[in-house]
């Protein structure tokens, strides 16, 4: 029987798990990752932010992602009826990359997992984690592989990167209801057949529904002529558009005049899926022998494509703290992990709240021409630089956005 124990055990080989594994292995630690699925597997969350390139670089993974042929992304277009605003990440306030990629997650996550393996991680695919046991100086995980065979592994520390699986929040009673209202997303992939000259494949298209500003759509173009499309709103608002999710998504797309113009003949190439009530929180992000990464901790809302960036930030922070702890240093996980991570999470939260209250929609759509330091600061957050304390919108985003919106009323 293979001994699956290691210095660090990681639950899940999504972006946060694989990046943490790469960083820890490059620092000389042994890592075992237990991943429930067989890769490649579909995952939602396909539009990256430029800030994520900084974290990929820390794991040595930029070359493999740059060479993979993913669609370049350099900004976002916001559209509502005839109103439109284009944002270019190169105009941001914070220094750092201003481009990134739109990625099919099945391939992206596989590439990151392969990179972690090349760095020395052992990834056990089709190994579901089912229980956690705290020890005096570490922890053990137990679970089952795809044959139903039981396994146990022990390590000095566990990183829970199980995303929507939320393994430790469930097992340890850490779940805390999100302060965000329950939303529903319906999504699929399509061959977009877009030939319209006004469409910029280098930008995510965010469309606000013409009569209900709480409903919004994403169109994430990929490099092979396909796109990811999805729509988000309250369950009642979305369900009012048809008898099932298939007819609802198609009706919502047809309901938008801009989509009818740029994408008159899409071919749907994937089943239409949905996810409801995805916002989640936890009572704490770490314990004596564990830390929660990415979506296993907090997830807010997909509107600003912040999920993978937050997942990477958490992986980078936790993996580097863990290296120091394993060298014998005492780490203040509250300050150095939870509080540091929450600076950016709370910045995105403020932007999300401001979006749904209408303030940020107004700032983006009604004043796109405003060329100022303020605009550069707002673009920085939209590019993912939500931890740059030199940007006043990082600590005080909600108040500052309403001041900006009021200036134009
Ligand atoms: P995940 O990517 O979820 O990976 C977790 C892994 O853990 C999975 O591979 C899973 O199989 C494995 N796992 C789960 N349970 C177990 C178990 N018991 N045992 C072993 N393994 C397990 N983010 C963006 O950045 N851009 C976007 O455009 C975007 N769009 C989104 C749209 C919607 C509608 C939603 C809901 C989210 C979106 N997100 C987006 C968020 C994004 O999906 C997540 O934030 C991101 O995938 C989190 O990465 P992660 O590594 O934490 O977890």
Describe the model:
With 409 residues, this protein is of the alpha/beta class. Strands 4, 5, 13, 14, 15, 16, 17 and 18 form an eight-stranded mixed beta sheet that branches. Strands 7-2-1-11-20 form a five-stranded parallel beta sheet. Strands 8-9-10 form a three-stranded antiparallel beta sheet. A hairpin with a 2-residue loop joins strand 4 and strand 5. The radius of gyration is 21 Å and the shape is globular. The model has no long low-confidence stretch (mean pLDDT 95). Flavin-adenine dinucleotide binds next to helix 1, strand 2, strand 8 and helix 9.
Number of strands: 20
Helix fraction?
25-40%
Query: Quaternary status of these chains?
Result: single chain
Could you describe the largest sheet, including whether it forms a barrel?
8 strands, mixed
The number of distinct helices, counting runs of at least 4 residues, comes to 13
The gyration radius over C-alpha positions equals 21 Å
Unreliable parts? none
Residues in β-strands, percent: 15-25%
User: How does the helix and strand content classify structurally?
Assistant: alpha/beta
Give the terminus-to-terminus CA distance: 69 Å
Given the C-alpha coordinates, what overall shape results? Answer: globular
Ligand names: flavin-adenine dinucleotide
What is the residue-mean pLDDT, rounded to a whole number?
95
């Amino acid at each position: 029987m293979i001994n699956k124990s290691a210095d660090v055990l990681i639950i899940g080989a999504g972006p946060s798990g694989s990046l943490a594994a790469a960083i820890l292995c490059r620092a000389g630690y042994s890592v075992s990752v237990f991943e429930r699925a067989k890769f490649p597997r579909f995952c939602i969350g396909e539009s990256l932010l430029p800030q994520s390139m900084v974290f990929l670089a820390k794991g040595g993974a930029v070359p493999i992602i740059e060479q993979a042929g993913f669609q370049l992304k350099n900004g976002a277009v916001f559209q509502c009826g005839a109103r439109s605003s284009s944002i270019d990440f190169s105009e941001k306030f914070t220094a750092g990359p201003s481009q990134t990629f739109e990625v099919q997650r099945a391939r992206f996550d596989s590439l990151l997992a392969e990179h972690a393996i090349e760095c020395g991680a052992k990834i056990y695919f089709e190994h579901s984690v089912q229980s956690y046991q705290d020890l005096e100086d570490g922890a053990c995980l137990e679970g089952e592989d795809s044959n139903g065979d039981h396994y146990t592994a022990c390590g000095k520390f566990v990183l829970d990167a199980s995303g929507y699986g939320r393994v430790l929040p469930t097992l340890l009673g850490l779940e805390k209801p999100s302060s965000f209202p329950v939303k529903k997303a319906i999504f699929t992939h399509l061959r977009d057949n877009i030939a319209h000259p006004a469409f910029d494949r280098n930008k995510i298209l965010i469309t606000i529904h013409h009569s209900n500003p709480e409903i919004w759509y994403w169109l994430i173009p990929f490099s092979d002529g396909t796109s990811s499309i999805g729509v988000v709103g309250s369950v009642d608002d979305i369900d009012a558009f048809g008898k099932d999710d298939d007819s609802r998504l198609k009706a919502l797309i047809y309901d938008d005049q801009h989509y009818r113009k740029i994408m008159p003949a899409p071919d749907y190439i994937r089943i239409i899926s949905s996810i409801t009530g995805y916002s989640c929180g936890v009572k704490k992000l770490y314990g004596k022998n564990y830390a929660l990464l990415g979506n296993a901790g907090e997830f807010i809302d997909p509107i600003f494509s912040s999920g993978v960036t937050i997942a990477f930030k958490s992986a980078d922070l936790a993996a580097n703290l863990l290296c120091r702890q394993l060298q014998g240093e005492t780490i203040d996980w509250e300050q150095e992990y939870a509080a540091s991570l929450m600076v950016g999470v709370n910045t995105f939260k403020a932007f999300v709240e401001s979006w749904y209250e209408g303030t940020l929609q107004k700032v983006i759509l009604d004043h796109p021409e405003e060329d100022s330091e303020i605009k550069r600061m707002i673009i920085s957050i939209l590019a993912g630089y939500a931890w740059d304390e030199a940007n006043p919108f990082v600590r005080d985003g909600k108040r500052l956005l309403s001041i900006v919106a009021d200036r134009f009323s």
